[in-house]
Amino acid sequence: MSTRRVLALLGVLAVLAAAGCDPAPRREVAAAPVNPGWRPLVLPAPPGPPGRALLRDATACAGRWYAVGGLADTAGGTRPAAWSSLDGTTWTALPIAADSFYGRQNVLYAAGCRDGVLAAIGAKVGGAHGYPRVSTWRQRADGGLVEVSASFETYGGPKAVNVSRLAGGPRGWLIVGNRSSGAAAWVSPDAADFALVEGAPELAGDGRGATWAFDAVGVPEGWLAVGGVLPAGRIDRDPAVWSSADGRSWRRAVLPGTERYEEAQRVALLDGVPVAVGLRGDGFGAWRRTGDDWVAAGGFAGAAAGVGSGVRAAGAPSVDGLVAAGSRLLAAVSDGAARSVWTSTDRGDSWQPVALPLPVAAGAQRDVAVLAVGERSWLFADDGERSAVWSGSVSGVPR
Questions:
Q1: Coarse DSSP helix, strand, coil percentages of the chain, rounded to the nearest 5 percent
Q2: Cα 33–215–258 angle (5° rounding)?
Q3: Between the chain's N and C termini, which has fewer beta carbons within 10 Å?
Q4: What is the distance between the alpha carbons of residues 189 and 367, in angstroms, rounded to a whole number?
């Protein structure tokens, strides 16, 4: 066979391979994980009976840092807990004022910050049907957290599905979650009284598909929420985003996807540019907004495949956190077997793993949360037996 014919055949094969390949971006893994030089910090025990700290989420804004979770006693009881810091190094336990039976047992799992003020969502499974009993919490002028009174059907009731994430923004506060009608929102100007927005056109499910919302972020023009839509007659979700000026009226956009299962589970602003990370097939993928459009960015595999844990995945994969750390992104994920943290320096086009100070398996009672202010990063980890916090610098800038 002549050289020309060989080259022509190779060209045809390349075209066929490209046509048959999944267009999902690459999953490049660095030879060695990034080492942030994690340094342990101390979270003081809150007042009251002793218990094991449960760390679930963290946030920061306007020169204040916050971590939220709860305390678990030896009998299995829980109560809410939260900590604050003025420098990210020295932490103080916040006073907690619960107003209800389940509020006194809440574990705070989502935190938001606006103008240096904390708000949070907590829950405790209970009642005849074993549903999560959800409460929201706001920070008082003295720094303590107080439970916000709300009717049962605000977050629960026969149409309830879940209450997911909380965000503070220029327009106030927004919670996203899901009801039987699909994606839903709760809005408030001051985190003292949230109004439920369900069945809203474009946000809720409709003839184009069933919707699901995971996360939201405040943007100058209002709000941006992320999630997925399951088109009628299909079994795989497509990633979706919603935009709103007031949290009540929404506009939906379906992101570039493939024939695989995809959904955006977390969103963050990197230099003002929204970037979302979520599931993409059997791994994780990123999308970012470019002008008025969204483009698919890179992907990665997660802990078991990417870092070589050798543990077979037994649970559902998830993205548990996404923050901007200076010019980088930090994503905390679970691949169903282990939890891991990944970083990107190019707005999600390529990713590499971050070394953790301890292994954390996947599981309902285990969590890894990430936080960043400038070039400095924090890791909050609960391996099911103990919780701890560390600070470091993924970029290598001195802490």
A1: 5, 50, 40
A2: 70
A3: N
A4: 30
State which amino acid sits at residue 151: S
Give the whole-angstrom CA distance, residue 399 versus residue 389.
15
Determine contact, residues 143/95, Cβ cutoff 8 Å. yes
What gap in Å lies between CA 241 and CA 370, rounded to an integer? 23
Q: If phi over 0 gives left and psi between -120 and 50 gives alpha, with beta otherwise, what is residue 307?
A: alpha
> Tell me: the pLDDT tens digits for 210-264?
999 999 999 999 999 999 999 999 999 999 999 999 999 999 999 988 889 999 9
Q: 364 pLDDT band (50/70/90 cuts)? A: confident
Query: Looking at per-residue confidence, does 20 or 65 come out higher?
Result: 65
Closest CA to 212 of 241, 169, 192, 183: 183
**9-40 core/surface letters (b: 16 or more CB in 10 A; e: else):** eeeeeeeeeeeeeeebbebebeeebbebebee
Give the chain's count of helices (H) and strands (E).
3, 29
- The rounded distance, in Å, linking the Cα atoms of 174 and 180 is 19
pLDDT digits (tens, 9 = 90+) for 2-12: 333 333 333 33
Round to whole Å and give the CA distance between 175 and 240: 17
